Amino acid sequence: MGYKCSVILTKALILFVLVNCLHSAAAAVSPQPVTDIPCVACDAPCPKRSSYVRGGCTSCNAHTSPCCGGVKNDYFQNGGTNLRKNCTCNTVKSRCCDGVINDYFQNDQFENLFSNRDSLEAHAKGFWDYHSFIAASAHYQPYGFGTTYINSTFFGTKEVAAFLAHVGARTSCGIEVASREPLEWGLCYNKEINSNSNNYCDEHDKNIYPCAPGVAYYGRGALPIYWNYNYGEVSKDLKLDLLNNPEYIEQNATLSFQVAIWRWMTPIMEHQPSAHDVFTGYWKPTKNDSLAKRVSGFGATINVLYGDLVCGQGDNEFMNNIISHYLYYLDLMGVGREKAGPHEVLSCAEQVAFNPTPSSSP
After folding, report:
1. For position 57, what pLDDT does the model report?
2. Separation CA 156–CA 95 (nearest Å)
3. Domain residue limits, the chain
4. Max intra-chain CA distance, the chain
5. Cα-only R_g, the chain
6. With the CA atoms of 94, 233, 235 and 307 taken in that order, what torsion angle do they form, in degrees rounded to the nearest 10?
7. Which residues, at least 6 apart from 108, have a Cβ–Cβ distance to it below 8 Å?
8. Residues in a beta bridge with 297
9. DSSP secondary structure of 21-37
10. 319 and 311 Cβ atoms separated by less than 8 Å
């Protein structure tokens, strides 16, 4: 009797399982609605510079929106059995931001990098200091300056070294004091010397950014900007009237650093990356970029900032001086020059310029 009951119970259990399996199979072949998922553009071009709005960098602790590519019939087929619930793009790099620069870059490191900035020979003695740099950085850290992770790799320390290498090279008076180490003389200047030779007022931009009477738009700042157009553009971003009062930059060290970081973080032209983008590797080279020998890395930052005034000219003193500062700063910041990458990444000697410019100042 017990054996018969056991057989009956077993059969009942098998029947129950079969009914549920058939029900699940029927549900699987029924068309299911596609859930709308917030997406970000996979290959969105850089906006025009005049309408550029800098996007915030997603927190590393936050859930990021998926990136969507393709068309619906790529996955809505066979009665809905190929539905793609998570939309991702393998070609898009994951970027997020975390921390602040003064977590890893301290006052003593700044002093080592710019050890002679307050020497008697310095033209801007007493102007520059660490706290001005940190205060200026705070405005751009939420957008990834010195705080970026790409695919979980931190680029902050190397980016600060790269940015300051450009600063050090452009503001150095090392050539004038050649008897000493030339790489130790960054932040010697805060403006262009012999600036009365050109007012840098571009007639083509006077309708948008009219030149103020008696004002000259010569190079000012830690990474000097020139021309009325650039002064007008940075005025919008920092919400200051630098078009009418460009002298503010050479009177305030924090503002001077802010203008420099603005130049580093902002694309020069439409469909072009910023120096920040090419250095961190967030920028993805196109086929045309590859043919032009443009690759992500330090050399591409020189290309973005100076174009064919420096790049595509083979080895030259201006480019090599910036590279030397970068390697030197990597050593002083504890990263080590061996982390800088191969020569083709460091140099732009063979790169075609992103933005050929027949006449402008570096």
Report:
1. 82
2. 12
3. 95-346
4. 113
5. 28
6. 70
7. none
8. none
9. HHHHHHHHHS--PPPP-
10. yes
Q: Which helix (H) or strand (E) holds 149?
A: strand 148-150
Q: In the beta sheet, which residues pair with residue 148?
A: 97
Q: Which amino acid is at 182?
A: P
pLDDT at 107: 98
Please name the amino acid found at residue 64: T
Q: Identify the three-state secondary structure at position 221.
A: coil
* Token pair of 47 as six digits: 């906006």
pLDDT value of position 117: 95
Residue 179: its pLDDT value, please? 59
Closest CA to 322 of 162, 156, 207: 162
Name the token pair of 27: 């549900």
Residue identified by tokens 């699987």 is: 28
Instruction: Determine contact, residues 32/75, Cβ cutoff 8 Å.
Output: no
pLDDT along the chain (362 residues), means of 10: 42 41 38 34 36 69 46 38 40 79 97 95 96 97 95 95 98 75 92 83 89 94 96 96 97 98 92 94 94 97 96 95 97 96 95 77 50
3-state secondary structure of 64: coil
The enclosing H or E element of 309 equals: none
| Residues shown for the chain | 362
Cβ proximity of 65 and 38 under 8 Å:
yes
What's the pLDDT at 32? 38
Strand partners, 67: 40
Whole-angstrom distance, CA of residue 329 vs CA of residue 267: 25
pLDDT at 54: 65
Distances (CA, A) of 127 to 11, 152, 226, 256, 294: 90, 37, 20, 10, 37
Look up residue 73 and give its two tokens. 């019939």
Q: Does domain 95-346 bear CATH number 1.10.1790.10?
A: no
Strand order in the sheet with 95-97: 95-97, 148-150, 153-154
């452009």: which residue's tokens? Answer: 170
SS3 252: coil
The pTM of this model reads: 0.78
For 306, other C-beta atoms within 10 Å of its C-beta total: 21
Strands 153-154 and 148-150: antiparallel
3-state SS, residue 261? helix
User: What does the DSSP 8-state code read for residue 139?
Assistant: T
